[in-house]
Design goal:
Blueprint lengths: L1 H42 L4 H6 L1 H20 L5 H31 L2 H10 L18 H15 L5 H22 L5 H34 L1
Length: about 220
């Protein structure tokens, strides 16, 4: 009888110990998830520019906190509510990350010399690395050529040899789009005006490009 009482007592203590351990794990998981959620929420209260400028530190902190929260949840049986809470904050963070990534990419493009040229000739963000001119149509192509030529005349004295190479690529891509637009109803009047622009641009570009190369060669000798 005494041995039976001892066994029951031992089992009871084990049971209490398991409950206590589970409660402790649940409490720890709650703290870790709450800490993670609060961190993500705090990022939403900071200006995107500031977050972007400190993005390496933000991501480092994020990885640590989400890892701690996920690890703590492993030892908790009844953790569905905490999982839902964790996943909701992950979605919120992913949205913030996408916004910051877009800002970083936009800034990188803005500082790219070739992108600056594209913006100068066609407007902010109209043309990227892919040289996609699908936005040019029979109704606006004359203006695009006219703006291109005017931008060239206004800035040609500032172009480097590399700039002239990029201008040539842009001009050829625009001409390629013109071939398509001609079959989409480009008026003969606009076509004639574009031909006049091309006639003036071609020799001017050739001479100016040679001049830029000559200037850079002279500078290199000095």
């Amino acid at each position: 009888m005494k041995n039976k009482v001892i066994k029951i007592g031992a089992l009871t203590m084990m049971f209490i110990g398991v409950i206590s351990c589970n409660d402790k794990n649940a409490e720890q998981a709650q703290k870790k998830v709450d800490s993670y959620v609060m961190y993500v929420d705090s990022l939403g209260n900071v200006e995107t520019k500031e977050v972007k400028n400190n993005w390496a530190a933000v991501e480092s902190q994020y990885r640590m906190r989400v890892s701690e929260a996920e690890t703590a949840l492993v030892d908790v049986k009844e953790n569905e509510d905490l999982k839902v809470k964790l996943e909701a904050s992950k979605v919120k963070y992913d949205l913030l990350k996408a916004q910051v990534d877009a800002e970083i990419q936009k800034e990188a493009l803005a500082n790219n010399p070739n992108q600056k040229l594209r913006n100068m000739f066609f407007g902010e963000g109209k043309i990227g690395e892919d040289m996609n001119f699908s936005w040019v149509n029979k109704d606006n192509i004359l203006k695009v050529y006219d703006d291109f030529f005017q931008a060239y005349k206004d800035n040609k004295s500032n172009f480097t040899r590399e700039d002239y190479d990029e201008v040539k690529l842009m001009y050829e891509a625009l001409d390629s789009r013109k071939n398509t637009v001609e079959n989409e109803g480009l008026s003969s009047e606009d076509n004639t005006k574009i031909a006049s622009i091309k006639f003036k641009f071609a020799p001017m570009f050739k001479v100016n490009r040679i001049g830029a190369k000559a200037r850079e060669n002279e500078t290199a000798k000095e």
